[in-house]
UniProtKB/TrEMBL annotation:
Source organism (scientific name): Geobacillus icigianus
This protein's UniProt keywords: Cell membrane, Membrane, Transmembrane, Transmembrane helix
Keyword Transmembrane helix assigned: yes
Localization, UniProt: Membrane
Membrane topology designation: Multi-pass membrane protein
The protein's name: HMP/thiamine permease protein YkoC
Length: 260
């Protein structure tokens, strides 16, 4: 497909998608409950290394994918640092008031946002949509009508991107002047929406013609099970969490152990 990015598949791709989702949700909740910035920094660094060397994508692609989350890290950390509360003043200029407490809280907030973003990126980059929804139907008993609806929507996204590019080229060839604001949105939204409605109707008719039903027993073309890679995946993230806690508590970078 035109919009696919070349990459190599690592062993992370072989882990069961449902198990992978469950492990990352647990880690997501764990990150929210970590109040030691040393532990959070260690965990963020481990996730960043896995993101760089475990997803199988080229460095330039990883850079552009990571850039928005780095900006979120910088903005969330700096806003808390400059406008937080505290008693030990480090710098004051107008509305900007940086204290020791606000600095460490801002650093902690930034790394928390970065860790959550890296968890989402690792899952999104190493999980294919088709095995994910098949696994949800088989392991979590997700109803097929919901799974196939989401899967069809995912498959339509690249087609919509290609149609958007086609509309842009057509308008440029015809010499249509550029518009801004609502006019630009209307120019692209109406044809994209109409094409999506037609395509969704054809998909619904095809599913009905094949006597697709959302109830009753079903067989699956892909059987998603468990393998040794699932054990490796759980062990890897458990090791990340244990190492982050151990190093953060026994070899702290900063003197603060709790930012609350």
């Amino acid at each position: 497909m035109k919009w696919e990015i070349s990459h190599r598949e690592t062993w992370l791709y072989e882990a069961n998608p449902t198990l992978k989702l469950a492990v990352l949700v647990v880690l997501f909740l764990a990150v929210l409950l970590i109040h030691n910035p040393n532990v959070l920094i260690n965990l963020s660094l481990a996730l960043f290394l896995l993101f760089c060397f475990g997803t199988g994508y080229p460095a330039n692609v990883l850079f552009w994918m990571f850039l928005p989350f780095f900006l979120i890290f910088f903005s969330s950390a700096s806003s808390m640092m400059m406008f937080g509360e505290g008693t030990t003043t480090w710098f004051r200029w107008g509305l900007i008031h940086i204290t020791a407490e606000s600095f460490w809280r801002g650093l902690h907030l930034g790394f928390r946002a970065l860790a959550l973003g890296l968890l989402g990126l690792i899952f999104a980059l190493t999980t294919r949509p088709v095995p994910l929804f098949y696994s949800l139907m088989q392991q979590l008993k997700l109803k097929p009508k919901y799974a196939y609806s989401f899967l069809a929507a995912v498959r339509l996204l690249p087609i919509m991107l290609e149609e958007l590019q086609t509309i842009r080229h057509a308008l440029k060839v015809r010499g249509v002047p550029r518009q801004g604001g609502l006019g630009k949105v209307k120019r692209y939204a109406i044809p994209l929406l109409s094409q999506s409605i037609r395509r969704a109707q054809r998909i619904a008719v095809a599913m009905e013609a094949k006597q697709f039903s959302g109830s009753g027993p079903r067989t699956f073309y892909y059987e998603i099970g468990f393998s040794k890679y699932d054990g490796w995946f759980v062990a890897l993230f458990a090791a990340f969490l244990f190492a982050a806690y151990y190093v953060g508590i026994h070899y702290p970078y900063i003197p603060i152990r709790d930012v609350r």
